[in-house]
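WARN no homologs supplied; continuing
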Amino acid sequence: MNDAPPPLPRLLQDLDPKTADQVLRYAHHERFERGQTILMEGDTPSALYFVEQGLTRLVQISAEGRIFVLNYVGPGDCINLTSAIKGHALVATVEAVTDALMSVIPGEHWRGLLGDNAQICHATLQQLAEDLRAMTIMVRELALHPVAARLARFILEHTDDTGPATRWTQESIAASIGSVRDVVGRELRALIEEGVLRRDRGELMIVDRDELERIARAES
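OK structure emitted
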């Protein structure tokens, strides 16, 4: 039996061992079942969550029930960092894609650590900078690239997927690229008709990678 502790969350990996231990001393564990809502958009939870096991996703849901996936968050990543610092209301709902295990640090303890330790402040700023860059890239994708290009990039990025989130449906793909199921279905049919993709026993196979990469580079 392997009783080795889980690896440090990425946010804490550059801290010296004593400081990392100081942070994790305040953590407790929470388990969530597949499909369970972990945090709800509009709420103001102040705790900081580190994913130890499993996969979660951040989604926004429109009044009509349309889902847009902001990000998938897995082991080593953190959730709710800005609210843990400032107490802002959540801009996304967090759901468990699989059964998940979290390390949870209460917000008051996290803010106290930030006030007392420059190393933790530096690590937090680096994480916020990475999050801002990822969000900027997402906005650029939505603003400049048509659905066909976003779909082509999604297919190229997920060709070799293995694991719990590999059974992509047209609906889940649409949610991930900021579109709707009908449009994704139409674009997939076009790629198949043009010979770029082939459907084989229910799975999509890339036939013409060069053309798919050309489509992925297209701008509006």
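The chain has a mean pLDDT of 88.
OK
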